[in-house]
Specification:
The structure holds two protein chains of two kinds. By secondary structure, chain A is mainly α. Chain A is built from eleven helices and four strands; from the N terminus they run αββαββααααααααα. Chain A has helices at about 10, 25-30, 50-60, 65-90, 90-110, 120-140, 150-155, 170-180, 185-195, 200-205, 210-235, and strands at about 15, 20-25, 35-40, 45. The two termini of chain A are about 30 Å apart. In chain B, helix 1 (about 10-20) packs antiparallel against helix 2 (about 25-30). The chains are: A mainly alpha, B mainly alpha.
Chain lengths: ~240, ~110
């Protein structure tokens, strides 16, 4: 593996793949930032104009006006919200079902969104007051057949917002890229292969080790990633 | 008898796999009583689970087959319409301010 002379930020865009570095499209996402965001002079994240206008109608007292305002609001936020939900469910169909109810709940009771000023605040508010309630309901009915306490089930499917949960998709990509750059080659390879969709057995074959060793390696690497990404959050 | 319960790293690996493949219920149902207890007491698992969710969002959310926003907006509108219909058809709530209609005895009472 040869040396590469790029800036630190650009290193984040490279991931080790098949014995050489290759671009995986993280950098454009970082530069493009999230679709909903724009920055003022102080680098404070604000919402774009269309979303702000849609949200004005959303908090109107008139039911029909609120209903009309839902369409532009859905168009502006759908991609961000569904990707956020995907983190917790990993299933498009369930994400769409939950999100449909979330939007209808927002229409019914939009008061929580009255003072929202930024995209991050919007996502946080929507998760805490609308999504979380619906996420809890997804697997609630299963609970009587499970050997898992109600509390643990809630924490697994609709957890409290951790440090990483409050970050936007682009910030997470940036943090992950930086953290991956600091991992050992074998650890990074294991995570990358997993992100490519390979099974643990296939990863074990690729790394020429056992299934148990890969599980352990993945567990330790993930804990390491957590620590590094938390450090990054605090720096930011 | 050999201990068949999975260790924390195995549970995390299975959780990550289930989340990636979109079959979380299968993982939840596979847990034994002992594994459930182990999850409750393990701080590492919950910390790692947070990163697993992040990896799931960053690595796979972009590849997911997500519906068109316009079509989805009409689905939301249909949901709102159904809620409006339900609200209209539901019976009126009972008055709770203490005002009652005249009782039978009061109605039949003759004025003096």
């Amino acid at each position: 593996m040869g040396k590469i002379s790029v800036t630190y930020c650009e290193v984040n865009a490279f991931l080790y793949k098949g014995g050489s570095f290759c671009v995986v499209g993280i950098l454009p996402a970082i530069r493009g930032r999230d679709a909903l965001e724009r920055y003022d002079g102080s680098n404070r994240r604000l919402m774009n104009k269309r979303l702000r206008n849609a949200m004005k109608g959303l908090t109107a007292p008139d039911v029909d006006r609120r209903r009309r305002a839902m369409e532009p609001f859905v168009r502006e936020t759908f991609q961000v919200f569904i990707r956020y939900l995907y983190r917790y469910l990993g299933n498009e169909v369930e994400c769409e079902d939950v999100l449909e109810d979330v939007y209808a709940d927002i229409w019914e009771n939009p008061n929580r969104l009255r003072d929202v000023e930024s995209e991050r605040q919007l996502l946080r508010t929507v998760y805490l007051y609308y999504m979380r309630k619906r996420l809890r309901e997804v697997y609630r009915r299963m609970n009587r057949h499970l050997y898992l306490s109600q509390n643990d089930l809630t924490n697994l499917t609709a957890p409290e917002l951790g440090l990483l949960d409050t970050m936007s998709q682009s910030e997470l990509k940036q943090a992950l890229g930086r953290a991956m750059g600091r991992l050992k080659a074998r650890e990074r390879r294991a995570i990358e292969l997993w992100l490519q969709g390979m099974s643990v057995r296939a990863i074990a074959n690729e790394l020429k080790t056992t299934v148990g060793a890969v599980k352990m390696l993945k567990f330790r690497t993930i804990l390491k990633l957590k620590e590094m990404m938390s450090e990054y959050c605090h720096e930011e | 008898m050999a201990d068949m319960n999975r260790k924390i790293q195995e549970l995390l690996s299975d959780y990550a796999g289930a989340l990636r493949d979109g079959c979380l219920p299968v993982f939840l149902q596979s847990l034994t009583r002992q594994e459930g207890r182990e999850l409750t007491s393990s701080r590492d698992f919950w910390e790692a689970a947070e990163v697993v969710r992040v990896l799931n969002g960053v690595g796979f959310a972009d590849k997911a087959a997500i519906a068109d926003a316009g079509l989805f907006a009409s689905r939301v509108d249909a949901n709102i319409a159904s809620r409006l219909k339900k609200a209209k058809s539901s019976p009126r709530p009972r008055r709770t301010n203490g005002a009652r209609s005249m009782t039978k005895t009061q109605k039949t009472e003759k004025p003096i």
